Amino acid sequence: AKPLWDYTLSEATGKKTSFLIDVKNKLEIENIIIKNHYLTSREYKDVELFNIVTARGVAALDKLVSIAVPRLKSKGLFIAYKGPQADKEVFEAKKNLKKYRTNLINQIAFNLPVTGAKRKILIFQVD
What we know:
Helix content: 25-40%
Distance between the termini: 27 Å
Number of helices: 4
Low-confidence stretches: none
Structural class: alpha/beta
Mean pLDDT: 91
Order of helices and strands: EHEEHEHHEE
Shape: globular
Strand content: 35-45%
């Protein structure tokens, strides 16, 4: 979608990392770096900073904020894909959102096509 952008994908599971590398090679995509490691909130030192960090199905929002937001540049965006408990998770993450000077700037609610299950895309920005 954005061929002039550079992407870094981080995956903790070796099998999934191998799949991503295989897809990248078969599609001949040059602007993707794939890293096989698990990100934790303790990995702050010497960390590359990004304009956008996304997460899907990783952890509760409170934990995700402490993992993702320290990796953002100033005014960077954190985009989280959450399920039906999204509003509850935002409420429970308020302390961490404040700690990391991060604000919810948009949310996109939708229902999955076949099941009708509720989902939200939450978009946060660092001050």
